[in-house]
Amino acid sequence: MSLQSIKYSRGSLEILDQLLLPGQSKYVVVRGVEDGWKVINKMQVRGAPAIAIVGCLSLAVEINPEDFENKKSLRQEIEGKLNYLVSARPTAVNMKIAADELITLANELYKDEAIDVTQMKHRFLDATEAMLKKDIADNRAIGANGAQAILQRVAKAGKTPAGSTGSVRVLTHCNTGSLATAGYGTALGVVRQLAELGKLEHVYCTETRPYNQGARLTAYELVHEKFPATLVLDSMVAALLRAKNVAAVVVGADRVASNGDTANKIGTYQIAVVAKHHDVPFYVAAPLTSIDLAIPGGDHIIIEERPDREMTHVGEHRIAAPGINCWNPAFDVTPASLITGIITERGVFKPAELKEAITKLLES
Ligand SMILES: CSC[C@@H](O)[C@@H](O)C(=O)COP(=O)(O)O
């Protein structure tokens, strides 16, 4: 069974505290929106899809026991609280897209004269809870589409390791697995699917400084799943791609602009540059809820800057010289020109085809 980052039943929400992993597995109770905002901002829960789901469910547990005087007050509560949750972390677009969808739903329910305030609340709770199931289904589809794309490309290029039966070695960055989503994972879902097909020869994961999502979380998931896996430091990627016949890089995304430029965990951009140099295909795996068609390119993405302490300390232990200045952007933007394909639940797209393809899909 894969790890569960979010435990939810109507009226009750708990998240696995990712600040404590891998040392301790402890669930934190989220009682409402204020708790939801805090666990997202402090990164007790993180990863673009998980942020959106926990944010929305924190509103669900808050309004579940409340009696609203009328539909207008419920609609106002929903809009105000969702917009507040969007402010917890700025780079990932998933929370914003989920908030916009749920606000649109609340407006429709408000206008629907056939339902009363209690029915409106239940319809809203149903829609919020549906996100959990949808995310897992989307991730499974991403996994299948991504594994197929990688295996096809590798077969065409004749790049499987010598003596193997078409199995591949892949590299991933940050954590995109069960912990970053409702379950299964995006880029790690592709790895999972390769393993399910018996085609995963080896997966390499980066440490992902400074927060160490790779060493603490991805490595934890890979060990848990008993996948053949090796941890490397971020500074080893060039050497790894030169030495280990890696067939593909697959990473997640926090926000994909309409031209395919992709914001993801800091360090992703330099991996893409190195992959290009070594002629290794570089894939981004992300659900449609990570694609922001409202912005034309990566320059429009706000990059979150996090506290110096994440760089200067490992746990309680200071590793940097006292007094040194720090720059700690949590994400970078990989230009579309370095991306081979964007793997979604609805297919794999070249960055140049993304906008038209997604617009068509959303219209249908
Ligand atoms: C499926 S998670 C995709 C991305 O959100 C992930 O790669 C990432 O950058 C996470 O950053 P984090 O700062 O840990 O929230």
UniProtKB/TrEMBL annotation:
It comes from the Eukaryota. Keywords: Amino-acid biosynthesis, Cytoplasm, Isomerase, Methionine biosynthesis, Nucleus. Pathway: Amino-acid biosynthesis; L-methionine biosynthesis via salvage pathway; L-methionine from S-methyl-5-thio-alpha-D-ribose 1-phosphate: step 1/6. The record marks C174 as: Transition state stabilizer. It catalyses: 5-(methylsulfanyl)-alpha-D-ribose 1-phosphate = 5-(methylsulfanyl)-D-ribulose 1-phosphate. The keyword Amino-acid biosynthesis applies. GO terms for cellular component: cytoplasm; nucleus. One of its GO terms (molecular function) is S-methyl-5-thioribose-1-phosphate isomerase activity. The active site is at D254. Pfam families: IF-2B. Its main location: cytoplasm. Its EC number is 5.3.1.23. The keyword Protein biosynthesis does not apply. It is found in: Cytoplasm; Nucleus. InterPro entries: IF-2B-related, IF-M1Pi, IF_2B-like_C, Initiation_fac_2B_a/b/d, M1Pi_N, NagB/RpiA_transferase-like. One of its GO terms (biological process) is L-methionine salvage from methylthioadenosine. It is an enzyme of class 5 (isomerase). Catalyzes the interconversion of methylthioribose-1-phosphate (MTR-1-P) into methylthioribulose-1-phosphate (MTRu-1-P). HAMAP family: Salvage_MtnA (MF_01678). Belongs to the eIF-2B alpha/beta/delta subunits family. MtnA subfamily. This is Methylthioribose-1-phosphate isomerase.
